[in-house]
Write a structure and sequence with these properties.
By secondary structure, this protein is an all-alpha fold. The chain has 23 helices and four strands. Strands 1-2 form a two-stranded antiparallel ribbon. A two-stranded antiparallel ribbon has the order 3-4. Helix 4 packs antiparallel against helix 8, helix 5 runs antiparallel to helix 6 and helix 6 packs antiparallel against helix 7. The N terminus is likely disordered. The chain binds beta-D-glucopyranose. Beta-D-glucopyranose binds next to helix 6, helix 14 and helix 21.
Length: about 500
């Protein structure tokens, strides 16, 4: 099938290109699945007598935090090494390596016999996530025809949210199984195999081939894609490669600190800081734990199932509102969506903080439903704003000469901030609001109220940051944005 593309000047084999993007986007889906799956699995792991030391009734909070967050640390390491690996080995091989890690990791996790082994396997799978988080968008953007690039790259962001949603479904499906957490992890095997096997049938990107194997190899791939303006595309690739070579020489520390570069670095690192420090992944990774604290499943015969069930609509609205954001971002602009989203997130965090902090005087039923409603407002607020827009902004604000480096710094800030937040969520609750009576009447649970109030306060700082530093990039070419910075003008006045 050769379809006419939008510009009507170029044609390409649309069906084939979409197929490629969908196969590669399984990497994004696994990023979502393997980060989200711990949310349901944790409820079973922390009470599994086979995993606990002799005298433990439940896995201590610090160990729970490590089981959840070690994956993020692995991802940070994977993301750091991705740049070099993709240049040396090629994009395709790195995605295959990630696929193999996901495959072996699912089996390793499913068969782990101790908490220590679980942590090691979560670290390994995290490394695969880091590789995928960098390489999948890179692969898609390098293989896509220019006019379809934006839409095809956003398939990845969508795939991440679909992966999180599917992980909640896996959680629910196996909640009542004996050692159901093993099956939850094992479910990741299916998309891992699709990714690994599917990748063998795809080509390397024309861009990598041009640099490493010469023009003829690059031309062959463009033939397959059915690109009609082959020679023009090859010429463009040559130019970009040349520019990038210049870029490597120029990105010295001195260049990075040049006054005209600084605003872009602040914007990129800052938006990623706020994306993570407003707590998205405490909700994504700990949703059923929070629902358990709010009393879901408290007087049920299937408590784990009932604590995972309300996460399902959360996962669904995350996918839905990511689509809404992709549709609105070029019409409304980035800043209005960021304001709207941050207001929704801050307000819902404040409600969550208050209901948990004052849970004993509020009444169990109100706490339960106020918590659920706030989370149902928080997630779509994130999904229309900081979720996709943070990633979009870091692909727009860096001057060409430091784009690669700037994006990797921002990605690092994202993973490191994610690690700090998910590694300290329960401890932060303990230190600020302490423990609360377990709504099921057995023992105590951490009260997360204080943690949510802190994330809410950071949300207010985020609003100020967006107002003061974020440029409205809607409708501007990358060159225009770059010139604005070069002239030393304030980002806000773009
Ligand atoms: C964030 C992830 C998060 C996901 C949730 C992404 O934009 O970077 O940390 O888990 O959105 O949907």
């Amino acid at each position: 099938m050769v379809a006419k593309s939008n510009s009507s000047k170029e044609t390409y084999n649309r069906g084939y290109v979409i197929l490629i993007a969908v196969i590669v986007a399984f990497g994004g889906l696994l990023f979502g699945f393997d980060t989200g799956v711990i949310s349901g699995a944790l409820l079973l792991i922390k009470n599994d007598p086979d995993l606990l030391m002799n005298n433990m009734a439940v896995l201590p909070e610090r160990q729970q935090e490590w089981v959840v967050s070690i994956t993020v640390l692995g991802a940070a390491i994977g993301a750091i090494l991705s740049g070099r690996m993709t240049d040396k080995l090629g994009r395709k091989k790195v995605i295959i390596i990630a696929g193999i890690i996901f495959t072996i990791g699912s089996i390793g996790l499913a068969s782990a016999s101790s908490v220590a082994l679980l942590i090691i396997w979560r670290l390994i799978i995290g490394f695969g996530i880091g590789l995928a988080s960098y390489t999948v968008p890179l692969y898609i953007s390098e293989i896509s025809p220019t006019q379809a690039r934006g839409a095809l790259v956003s398939i990845n962001q969508l795939a991440i949210t679909i992966g999180v949603f599917l992980s909640y479904i896996a959680g629910l499906s196996f909640a009542n199984f004996e050692e159901g957490w093993r099956w939850m992890f094992l479910a990741g095997l299916i998309p891992s195999l699709i990714l690994t096997v599917g990748m063998f049938f795809l080509s390397e990107t024309p861009r990598w081939l041009m640099v490493n194997k010469g023009e003829d190899e690059a031309r062959k791939v463009l033939d397959k894609i059915g690109e009609s303006n082959k020679e023009e595309v090859l010429e463009k690739i040559k130019n970009t490669v040349k520019k990038e070579r210049e870029q490597i020489q120029i990105s010295s520390i001195k260049q990075l600190l040049a006054p005209w570069v600084r605003p872009a670095l602040i914007i990129g690192a800052g938006i990623m800081f706020f994306q993570q420090f407003t707590g998205i992944n405490t909700i994504t990774y700990y949703a059923p734990t929070i629902f358990e604290m709010a009393g879901f499943g408290a007087d049920s015969v299937q408590p784990v199932y009932d604590a995972i069930l309300p996460a399902l609509p959360l996962g669904f609205v995350n996918v839905l509102f990511t689509v809404v954001s992709i549709m609105l971002v070029d019409r409304w602009g980035r800043k209005p969506l960021l304001y709207l989203g941050l207001i929704g997130m801050t307000a819902s965090l404040a409600v969550l903080g208050v209901v948990f902090t004052f849970y004993s005087s509020i009444g169990a039923v109100t706490v339960k439903w106020a918590a659920f409603t706030s989370m149902m407002i928080y997630i779509p607020s994130f999904a229309i704003s900081l979720g996709p827009i943070a990633w979009l902004l870091i692909s727009e604000v860096y001057p060409t000469k430091i784009r690669g480096f700037g994006m990797s710094i921002a990605t690092m800030v994202n993973w490191v901030s994610n690690f700090i937040i998910t590694n300290t969520f329960l401890t932060l609750g303990l230190v600020t609001t302490g423990k609360m009576a377990d709504p099921s009447g057995t023992g105590t649970l951490v009260n997360p109220g204080g943690a949510f109030l802190i994330y809410g306060a950071i949300g207010i700082l985020g609003l100020i940051f967006v107002y003061r530093y974020i440029p409205e990039t809607k409708g501007h070419s990358l060159e225009y944005i770059e010139n604005h910075f070069l002239e030393g003008k304030h980002p806000k006045n773009l």
